[in-house]
Amino acid sequence: MTKPFSLLNELENEDGEPSHLKRGKIVSLLKEKFDFENSHLRPPNSKDKGILAKCFGYFAPDQAKELGIYPYFKEIQEIDGCRVVIDGKEAISISTNNYLGLAQDASVISAAREALEKFGIGCTGSRFLNGTFNLHKTLERELSSFLSREDTIVMSTGFQANQGTIACLLGRRDVAFSDRENHASIYEGCGVAQGKTVRYNHNDMDHLEYYLKKYSDVEGKIIITDSVFSMSGDIANLPAIVKLAKDHGASVMVDEAHGLGVMGEHGRGVASYYNLEDEIDIYMGTFSKSLGSIGGFISAKSKIIEFIRHKASAFIFTAALPPASVAGVIAGLDIMINEPERINLLRENTAYIKRGFFDMGFQVNNNSIPIVPIKIGEEALTLYLNRLLFDEGVFAGVAVSPVVPPLNAMIRTSYTSVHNQQDLDKVLGSFKKLGIKLGIISKE
Fold it and tell me: What are the residue numbers of the active site?
């Protein structure tokens, strides 16, 4: 891994300067080396023409790599709980959605191994034709029972569950109302669907109501929202959404990707937390967060699921979820239900880390969601901080535009039940040390 540039050493050690002045000077120096906002906007070489010209004029990744601050596609060589080895260096991972520590659980691995030996590594076909194994049907029944739903359909990814469902349900005369911070898979589903989509401001119920009134003459209306927003860690205002849906004759679809295993009774999600399970028409969830695997599902009334089974292209034309993954999810679901101490520990760790960040001067959400974004602002400064954190033995995620709005870059951290207090103290200590060094927070 390229060593990060050291042009900031002198400024970083000027302890007497006010933090905001130090930060301003550091950002200016960083932009001399790497102007993130403009580096990907250079015009292509005059020799490059056609649809691929934009590819040859895209320099941002190369510049970040040369400076040693490129944060993506790091190769994890080993993993043990919340600890990873990257480039031979061990680090505490705060970049994982393995909320309940099930991805490496011995019972989950054993169930997956048994299925692997029995069925092989893949289904070699779509669920629609030859790829439905008894494991898929078992998981669908168990999810339906767990969520008190009539039926469930399991798909190969959470992305496909959202995209495929929305695309087949939203007809040309229908309108979807989507929160602006919803998952990209929801945007994709709305984008390929025949119907119209309007995006209301994040968690802004007045704006949602405005659009519902504007399209009051439309018969087919559906409100789509994440239950927990993956970047901000905000919780959707489901009680208000359900009320507006009732008042304006709309259905409700909730993406519980980050709510499942985190909130509600036995981890049933935000809908359970608010006691609104019967008011949600379509429940979407994934296996790649709390359940530690891959895949997604939709739970709803049996007639809705039957329609999706026969109409969702993303389901019909995709190879079925591999048997080992399905068996692992079945085992993980059983553990999640029968070992509530995992969820309790996750909540304790979340409260501890948020209190620590708040005491340092970082703004964090006062909720039980283990997604804790540390907002920095300038993209170059965020990438630099992320690299310095890794040098300290902390492997964090980073979000820059267009994932978040320009100049709203963040270090996206997330926590699990397998982090211990020593891990969390190490994380907090590194953020405090580097935050002061870079003028992001004050020393006091």
Answer: 230, 258, 289
